[in-house]
Amino acid sequence: MSLLKDRLQKLNSKLEASYLDLPLATKASDIIPGEGTVHATVMLIGEAPGALEAIERRPFVGRSGQLLRKVITQLGLDFSDLYISNIIKVRPPENRDPSKKEIESYKLFLDEEIEIIDPLLIITLGRLSMNKFLPKVKISQVHGQIHDIEWNGKMRKILPMYHPAAALRGTKVKNMFIDDFSRVKEYIN
User: Fold this and answer.
1) Comparing C-alpha atoms, which of 165, 133, 147 is closest to residue 64?
2) Are 7 and 32 in contact (CB under 8 A)?
3) The predicted structure's pLDDT at residue 189
4) Residue 139: what pLDDT?
5) In whole angstroms, what is the distance from residue 182 CA to residue 106 CA?
6) 3-state SS class at 60
7) What order of strands is seen across the sheet that includes strand 42-46?
8) Closest Cα to residue 47, out of 36, 61, 66, 60?
9) Which domains can be identified in the chain, with CATH numbers?
10) What share of the chain is helix, strand, coil (3-state, %, to 5)?
């Protein structure tokens, strides 16, 4: 096993072992870890798992995840270049937005996950994940634009995008979501 895979496996084990100290988790299997290759060029970060994600223990497999995966496939992006995660690792009740306290509780795990994956590009899906890197902007003003920021002592490229759940609610946002995603392939090529 590669060193990075080993680090990621240890991080996920630590996360599951810490479930009693984390909000929303009542058992280790409530934790939904990230998914993808440790050598990913692109890391996608959503907000929180939903109902189907909690059942399957995989990120982005519900309706919004199906749209995300469909767009990724249609644009010819390679899943072997992607890693998908969330800012919190447990489903909030009734799919509500995670609270600031919940986001802060999972912060160290996500930070380490980002360090392990070390992607060329981080795509934030939704305003809450965008706020981790760009706290003073509105998603409607910056979606689809790559931002170079210094984060944890390293320069990172951040691409804020609407959450696919928002794209499911209206044609205008869906078209923006697809258009924004089309830039990913241009960027990584």
Assistant:
1) 165
2) no
3) 72
4) 96
5) 30
6) coil
7) 35-36, 82-86, 42-46, 121-125, 154-161, 147-151
8) 60
9) 3-188 (3.40.470.10)
10) 50, 15, 35
